[in-house]
Amino acid sequence: MENQNRRNFLKAGTVLGGAALLSPALSLAASQAQENTDNLDRYPSGLQRRTLGTGKNSIEVSALGLGCMGMSWNRSFVPDRKYMIETIRKAYEMGVNFFDTAEAYGPFINEQLVGEAIKPFRKKITLCSKFGFEIQNGKFISGALNSKPAHIRDVVEQSLKRLNTDVIDLLYQHRVDPNVPMEDVAGTVKDLIKEGKVKHFGLSEAGPEDIRKAHGIQPLTAIQTEYSLMSRDPEKDIFPVCEALGIGFVPYSPLCRAYLTGYINERTTYIDGNDNRGSLPRYAPEAVKANWPFIDVLSKFGNERGLTVAQVALAWLLAQKPWIIPIPGTTKLAHLQENLWSIDYKFTADELSQLTADVSKIKITGTRLAPPKK
After folding, report:
1. Preceding omega of 107 cis (within 30 degrees of 0)
2. In the chain, what are the domains?
3. DSSP 37
4. SS3 for 11-78, per residue?
5. Cβ neighbourhood burial of 267 (10 Å; 0-12, 13-18, 19+)
6. 107 has pLDDT over 90
């Protein structure tokens, strides 16, 4: 109702402006107001779209998605649920139609949150979830993966219930299971697509060989992997495969788990048991301090152009390839709007080249993942 009232107000204003005919400038403004109103009718906010995948395996989604994990799990604090539902719904009103969750987030509770939040507009969005971990009695079995065909089917059935839907638009294997042939995983998802329970297939943190194997059985729509200005490994081996096979790329942690916002520093504390950053070398206090030149470079670039550090980081990602769609997470409406405004910034060739060169000179302290347990 609020959006409709706003549209009616804009349309009324356009009519009055045209009738007054005070000047050519006012007539032009009236014409632009009408165009903006038409955009509101097409999409909730006219947010730019991009395409993941090719052919019948493609989906058109908002140029930025919303990663929902931190709204209920693994980011130290747990926000009030009603405000997170409001944030998801506000994201939709602002044009976001690409929402990411997983059974592992909680586990289970994030799917339940997302399922409730998207209910009013379920058919108008792309909903993503994932399988691949061994979870028993609501708890993770340490280090255990499970992508056995029967388990995949069970996870999908349970996820459909929690998400309050009859189909998952994009289903990822969360992590590659070395004990299950990729051909069996892809074949199972292919069957689920035929049965109408899944629409599209993706892999998360998979290497080139597994991507090719999966794609040969069931064409992939997207690869989801950590990618940011501080985590650029996918450029070397994943991007060439995606480009060759026509697969989209979805960066998770595109703001380096909030580091590339300037929002955390060496004094930031993480709650054990509900925040993985405390176990990652890159987020140790000494590493946070050592990596601060990233914030300095992005801040300098942004200050000269009216952008925040986070907006520069996201705009840089969007400038890399037209088939990249980041999914930054947030629990705050102000940060949601900030992130979405990054879509509007277009680098000149010289700006992009210089910024990339500047950040490439910075030596990164600390690995993005914890070392494997012996």
Report:
1. yes
2. 44-360 (3.20.20.100)
3. H
4. HHHHHHHHHHCCCHHHHHHHHHHHHHHHHHHHCCCCCCEEEECCHHHCEEEECCCEECHHHCCCECCC
5. exposed
6. yes
Whether pLDDT at 358 is above 70: yes
pLDDT at 348 over 70: yes
In 3D, which of 191, 192, 202, 227 has the Cα closest to residue 102?
A: 202
pLDDT for res 46: 75
Instruction: Please tell me the distance from the alpha carbon of residue 122 to that of residue 199, in angstroms, as a whole number.
Output: 14
Amino acid identity for residue 361 in this structure: K
Q: What is the mean pLDDT of residues 4-30?
A: 37
309 alpha carbon, distance to own chain's centre: 18
Determine the Cα–Cα distance for residues 364 and 368; give it in Å rounded to an integer: 10
Residue 3 tokens read as 């959006």
Beta pairing class for 133-136 and 126-131: unpaired
Q: Is the CB of residue 373 less than 8 Å from the CB of residue 143?
A: yes
Total number of residues shown for the chain: 374
Q: Is 83 a catalytic residue?
A: no
Element (H, E) at 130: strand 126-131
pLDDT > 70 in the chain, percent:
87
Distance CA 257, CA 252 (A): 9
Catalytic, out of 43, 83, 92, 105: 105
Does the pLDDT value for residue 16 go beyond 50? no
Sign of CA dihedral 67, 70, 73, 74: positive
Beta-sheet pairing, 168-173 with 98-100:
unpaired
**Measured distance CA(193)–CA(119) in Å, rounded:** 22
